[in-house]
Amino acid sequence: MASGARMIRVMVVDDEALIRTGFRHILEAADDIEVVAAVPGGQAVRTAQERRPAVVLLDIRMPDVDGLSVLADLRGLPDPPVVAMLTTFGMDEYVAAALHSGAAGFLLKDTDPEHLPSLVRTLADGGTVLSSEVTRTVVDGYLNAGPQQDAVRSLDRLTDRERAVLAAAAEGLTNAEIAARMHLSTGTVKDHVSAILAKLEVGSRIQAALLAERAGFLRPPRDQEEP
């Protein structure tokens, strides 16, 4: 790793030792990622407080503790880590519940190992990640349901700059990529994202993007649509 480059601190939470060991080996092969802990669910919150990871990969279904409860506890910490859920299940209720609780992503455990380091980098940079198998569930499921007019009213709370940041985030751009596009500092983009989530009363960028889609904000005007 180049001198001065950021080291991304990651914690893996899974009750299967084989899964924890596998993820550790895959991620630590990257020069810019350090797995600071790999623990079962019951140790997750205390270990996060002690080790202060930037990114947590958290199993959503564990025998000793509910992954969604662990997610809520992690998100309630004073300086909460970014959390992506790990699962072998693509069930709608788990996807929706995790994202409503502030998860920044949802990955199946059989995700291509070659992709894991780049997905962790995206999470650390403020982006969101979804396995392709669950994307349709998120877009077409009940996260995308609800009165359209309510969504429009929510978007009316945003400034023009915040709308521009939201549109870029909905494209899947990270904070650094948004900053480069809009000629802003990364810190300013983070502040805008925080303001957007607060004004829209949502817990994640994914929820904000879905709300914007429901309001019609991400669709081009009718006269610009393809014939």
Q: What do you see in this structure?
A:
Keywords: DNA-binding, Phosphoprotein, Transcription, Transcription regulation. The modification 4-aspartylphosphate is found at residue 59. This is DNA-binding NarL/FixJ family response regulator. The protein has helices at 17-28, 44-51, 67-75, 92-100, 116-124, 132-140, 148-155, 160-170, 175-182, 186-200, 205-214; strands at 8-13, 33-39, 55-59, 82-87, 105-108, 129-130. It is of the alpha/beta class and 227 residues long. The protein has 2 domains: 8-141, Response regulator (Rossmann fold, 3-Layer(aba) Sandwich); 147-215, Arc Repressor Mutant, subunit A. It has a 6-stranded parallel sheet with strand order 2-1-3-4-5-6, with helices on both faces. Helix 8 (160-170) crosses helix 10 and helix 9 (175-182) packs across helix 10. 39% of the residues are buried.
What's the domain count? 2
Give the C-alpha Rg. Answer: 18 Å
State the shape. Answer: globular
CATH architecture assignment name of the largest domain = 3-Layer(aba) Sandwich
Spatial arrangement of strands, main beta sheet: 2-1-3-4-5-6
CATH topology of the largest domain: Rossmann fold
Q: In CATH's first tier, which class of the largest domain applies?
A: Alpha Beta
GO molecular function, one term: DNA binding
Keywords: DNA-binding, Phosphoprotein, Transcription, Transcription regulation
Domain Response regulatory: 9-124
Modified residues (4-aspartylphosphate): 59
